[in-house]
Amino acid sequence: MISKIDGKLFADMVIQGAQNLSNNAEVINALNVYPVPDGDTGTNMNLTMTSGREEVEHNASHHIGALGKTFSKGLLMGARGNSGVILSQIFRGFCQNMEDYETVDAKAFAESFEAGIDTAYKAVMKPVEGTILTVAKEAAKAGVEKAKQTEDCTEVLEAIIEQGGIALDNTPNQLPVLKEVGVVDSGGKGLLCVYEGFLKGLKGEKVEAAAPKLDTETFVNDDHDFSGIINTEDIVYGYCTEMMVRFDKNKRPFDEQEFRQDMTKFGDSLLVINDDEIVKVHVHSEHPGEVFNYGQEYGELIKVKAENMREQHRNVVNKEKKAENNNAEQVETAIIAISMGEGISEIFKSMGATSIINGGQTMNPSTEDIVKVIEQSGAKKAIILPNNKNIQMASDQAAEIVEADTVVIPTKSIPQGIAALFHYLPDAALEDNQATMTEALNDVVSGAITNAVRNTTIDGIAIKEGEFMGLKEGKIVASETTQLEAAKALLADMIDDDSEIVTVLTGEEAESETTEALTEWLEEEYPDVEVDEQVGDQPIYPYLFSVE
After folding, report:
1. Cα 151 off chain centre by
2. What pLDDT digit, counting tens, does each position of 98-118 carry?
3. Which secondary structure element, helix H or strand E, spans residue 309, and what is its range?
4. C-alpha separations of 305 from 167, 222, 247, 278, 281 in Å
5. Residue 4 CB contacts under 8 Å (≥ 6 apart), including other chains
């Protein structure tokens, strides 16, 4: 029975939870409701959870409250997409409930899950049942009830997972679109993967990575990632230490498990690869000489290296500061546009955007990505154009974190972002620009063409894998065998008697013949509507349209 959980045990739970989520990321992506090639719930949740895991690995504490703060901060800054932001909020409340505890018992453990639900629901403007929120809520209730009957944290977590699974299976009955497509909620599935990994860690078990084994010839890496380290002084083990030992049968017999256990005493970031003749070792140590001396107990040293990571880190920081000083353009108001495609980025720049963050479907920027851009601008005020509904929540979190007075324009598409930026006035007050730019979103209708990645039926439209779909404001309105026919059907739905301008943004997969034929069709069918063709170079979507 496990009656108490401390920081060390919770760190193991986090690591196993992150690994289990990572192993299942593609499965979660495949649960995307719409059959478009942009299902990224699993990717976003995985990257968010990985950010939390990395912070925990860098700053482990036996005090569960202190460790929880570290974990929560990592999730917050690494949160990507709405699913990642909601995940970060669930564990924000979870960790806040434990922050004064050195260890938690079954009751406090269960209550922390429930506290996470309150925080997550408050973070979502319009909570929808049949999503990750429902799975989290039902699972937490079961945990609290179980904690009234047992002092075993394992039994509490098992009850949470069991009820979470039941709630997940029920999501299609709460969201009709899930039932229509025949899938469960992807975010709820991702959360359960985290909880299942937690249980493994709680029991002292390990989730093996579902990835190729390390290449024994290239496992030694001269590049060190210092992204998780804030100050040079934070580096506990200062030397990247590597050695290769050829076994000597007259010396100490090699036992891999014993060797690994002994090596953990010298530092962290340990990698050990061996065969019958040689063992290769990589470890971050404060005393490289001790590592080499230990290696000699088994045989002859045939390769050794020790690099001072503190000095490397100083050089990296100095270079980054110099680059920031040279490149950072000081502006009064920073305008940050999330963009996909070089052509679209150039449009935003030409309209006054001061910073471009590459992102969109399948590549949502994190909260930290947005925060860094605003901070590096040195601006006192900032305007964020997410240009994607799945980047809205990360943008909102970034606006809360930065010191600059920041507003987020709720742009859900590239056309909306362009329309909003068109109405920006440099001399106007931030609040006035926010109102004017937000109001401009009502004057534009957004559309997109992309290809179907599976057979399904949505809103009565039969969709076949490989066909081209027309999406109006994110909703599928047509599915045809060619880009041209899909575009015609979509635009016929978008254009009405009040329409004046149709903007066509051509993507990487747009066909010149199709673009030419589409333009001719528009001019013939809608002679009173002006057609503006622009090169967007966006991936995934051969065509993006705006109708104003």
Report:
1. 35
2. 999 999 999 999 999 999 998
3. helix 309-327
4. 53, 10, 18, 16, 10
5. 103, 104, 105, 153
